[in-house]
Structure formats: structure tokens, C-alpha cells
Write a structure and sequence with these properties.
CATH topology of the domain at 106-180: Serine Threonine Protein Phosphatase 5, Tetratricopeptide repeat
Number of helices: 8
Distance between the termini: 108 Å
Structural class: mainly alpha
């Protein structure tokens, strides 16, 4: 029993072939779907039932093919391509600006977009802040956010102008509240 097992093991080891490209006589290919079968006992494709061709096929080592493809690829092109998140952000930015131009973007969505892009896209943030400021010129939250933006951009005189307006609005509201008492 051991001798038979050893003989089979030797036979299997001797039949293994190494190398980049070689021909195999027991390799067959489906004439319809192109699936390659090696050392199969069937004469038909198990996927679509089409007959297998008995011609010799050239088998290329897929590992070495992948390595050569990677070496030939221009790595700089991969660095310049956008990530999926950047692509979605760009689409979101375009949708936001389109809706703002049509004057159909509401207050909550605009404030959420300002907060989302506060650190990453200052141009869009400023555009949205101006949109809200024009639509709601006495909204304190919009004015404070706009003042924050000007501080961030180191435009202190503009920021102080906005904050003075906030102070005036608050003083007017306090006066109205006190006169009602």
C-alpha cells in the first residue's frame, strides 16, 4: 500500500511543470464561454454544455503578468485620481450650488452644508454664507457664522462690521423686550 501511494506521489510530482509559459496537451477550452479546463474528464463545458476544444493552449503565469502590468502603470496617474468620497463631495457641491441658484435650498440644508465644508472648501462656504445672509439679513446665527468666516480669513474689519450689526440687532431686541414689560 505504501509503495502504491509513493509511486502515485512521485508520478504527481514529476508531472508538475514550472515556467512562465508552457503548452499543456490536457488543457481544453469551451468554445462558447471561453472557460479553460485543465485535466478534466469531461468533453463538455459544465457551465453551458458546449463541447470543449482539444487544441493546445498557451498558459501564461498570471502572477508574473500582474507584476509586469504594475511596473508599466504610471503611478502618478493613480495619485491624481479622485477618491469616491471626493467624487461624491464634488457632486454634492454641484447639487448645492444648483439648488441655491434656483433659490430652492432651505435654511437647514444650507447651514448643514456650511458646517460640512467649513474646513475643506472655503469658496463654497463663503458662497453659501452670502446666500443665507442675503436671504436672512438679520439672522443672528448666519451673521455669527459669517463673522467666524471673516476671522478665519483674517479679515478683521469685515468681521467687526458684522459683529457690530449683531450687537445692534440684539440691543434693538432688548429694547423691544423691555418696553413690553
Amino acid at each position: 500500500m505504501k509503495q502504491i501511494f509513493f509511486a502515485l506521489l512521485c508520478f504527481l510530482l514529476l508531472t508538475i511543470e514550472f515556467g512562465n509559459a508552457e503548452t499543456k496537451s490536457d488543457t481544453r477550452q469551451c468554445s462558447v464561454c471561453g472557460k479553460i479546463y485543465t485535466k478534466t474528464k469531461y468533453n463538455f463545458c459544465i457551465i453551458d454544455g458546449a463541447p470543449l476544444t482539444d487544441q493546445k493552449l498557451m498558459i501564461v503565469n498570471p502572477v508574473k503578468k500582474e507584476v509586469s502590468l504594475l511596473k508599466s502603470a504610471n503611478i502618478a496617474n493613480f495619485k491624481n485620481q479622485k477618491t469616491i468620497e471626493e467624487f461624491h463631495n464634488d457632486q454634492l457641491k454641484q447639487n448645492i450650488t444648483d439648488n441655491v441658484k434656483l433659490n430652492i435650498y432651505d435654511y437647514e440644508k444650507t447651514m448643514a452644508a456650511i458646517n460640512k465644508f467649513w474646513d475643506s472648501d472655503l469658496a463654497l462656504t463663503f458662497y453659501l454664507l452670502n446666500y443665507l445672509y442675503q436671504k436672512y439679513p438679520e439672522d443672528l446665527d448666519v451673521m455669527k457664522k459669517l463673522a467666524d468666516y471673516y476671522f478665519k480669513m483674517e479679515e478683521y474689519s469685515r468681521a467687526s462690521e458684522i459683529l457690530e450689526k449683531v450687537e445692534n440687532i440684539l440691543n434693538q431686541k432688548l429694547e423691544k423686550f423691555e418696553t413690553k414689560k
